[in-house]
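User: quick one, fold this
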Amino acid sequence: MRALTIADGLHYHTDMPDSSLSYGQAMLKMRVAGICNTDLELVKGYMGFTGIPGHEFVADVIDGPNSLLGKRVVGEINVADGSCEFCQRGVPSQCSNRTTVGIDRHPGAFADYLALSTNNLYTVPDGVSDDAAVFVEPLAAALQVTEAIHLSPRDRVVVIGVGKLGMLVAQVLKLTGADVAGLIRREKQARLLDAWGIAHGERTDFATNSVDVVVDCTGNADGFSVSLDLVKPRGTVVLKSTYTGIPQADLTRVAIDEIRVIGSRCGPFDAALRLLQADLIDTQSLIDTRYAFDDALTAFEQAAMPGALKVLLDF
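Assistant:
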């Protein structure tokens, strides 16, 4: 099968061995996959990952339980053991023994075929296109912000790092009725936010200590420092970033101003599919370009360009 692998860089293969099924899995044939910032960081050495990356995808089930055969599916990325303390508490995303599709000790979606646990699969409704469904994983992550904190309609919320994930977070938080704004660095970001009726500004447009909630989607270490500058005493910083560097920040302020810092990771796929089915989230505007999978190396170069939004791979 065709596949991308990471091992001292990114490589494209046409003769990788086909995936094989284990108990409890279904065989997936890829339709569309999306390149995200985590994939770009894995190429640079993040997590020490080697193997097939990719975790945002839409696929057809071609082998497995009869109830899934022929279904179009998306897949949760955390492969849990079902028996640890967190699994027993209904939090499989924090399974003590989990592997993570395309990120940590589990093959990913940048290949023609992927064997994945049936517990991880969600059927895509007929009314949701492949191009929308490929956003389910990051949209679910955006929804997790609303699981992590209670947002009041009176809250002033600023999303920093309004890129691929941040744009989804901003749209989700707007649905809560809160006063949401995006901190922008590029004109393209301003145009998208304007189209959705979401306020925006540059760093100098936001006063220090003026925001109830800051959601950091920057993916860089400076994001945490900017978040602490913006948030009010007793405010909340939600970290949606997995930093490649170590943040340098005034943690004394966290204690003195009693700032809550909350990590937020993966979220509910079923809710993300409902939002897409109801056409409440604009994903089409977030697609920069698409490539045939045979041109995946070029696609990665495009995805790594400053300001790039979603780059899709068609199988």
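User: anything notable?
Assistant: The first strand starts at residue 3 and ends at 6.
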